[in-house]
Design brief:
8 helices, 2 domains
Length: about 280
Amino acid sequence: MKALIFEKFGGPDVLQYKEIPNPILKENEILVRMKAIGLNFADIYRRKGNYHLAGEPPYILGYEGSGIVEQVNGEITDIKAGDRVAFADVPFANAELVAVPRDKVIFLPDEISFETASAVLLQGLTAQYLAKDSYNIKPGTNMLVHAAAGGVGQNLVQIGKLLGARVIGLTSTAEKSKVAYDVGADTVFLYDERCVEKVKETTNGLGVDVVYDSVGSTLEESFKAIKIGGTVVFFGMSGGDPSPIDPRMLMDTSKTLTGGDLWNVLNFIRRKKCAI
């Protein structure tokens, strides 16, 4: 099969489209011939070497996608060749064929395109756990969303509004602010030297209850934007690594810093909850 691989960390130029062996199915796996593959910032982090990768090169990026079932492990009886399926949190998706565990398979209705399914799963699942596990949004919550026009940002805005929150977004351009407004944000500010002041002005000087920070380099500003006892949820570094946070500041202001990773949520946290 053909796959998009890389053998060393770096920029887009390290990617190569090469012929490699087909996946060998393990117990409770199916083989999917890919029709569409999702691209996320996590793939960029892995290509650059920001995230740990197990095993040895060549590495294959990609963790979500959709396609047609080509082969089924003999023990699986509820999936057949020809079924339309999608998946998230499955490695090596940037290839013509992907081995997908049965418990990660999502049946795809005919009315949902392969492209739509591949674009929404990781971002949608990420936004869902951020809104319920990392911080439990409730009616009346004041929340601030960095990169509100991005994929996870748009999902967070919409989920926040559905849960009764007041949503403030931050974007880099006027065009992006329109996107955030279109999906339901109550207020949107552009990144500038006064954006933290503007956020606090809209909350009577107190600050918001929670900030969702996927930019990283903005982490210090995020803490300035939350109220005493507020929470910053850090889940990405699209703008670069964050500066170190002083634990004494957290103690003095009763503020909380928490992180999130979808792989941990799906594989450990929620499974542990289900077992209790």
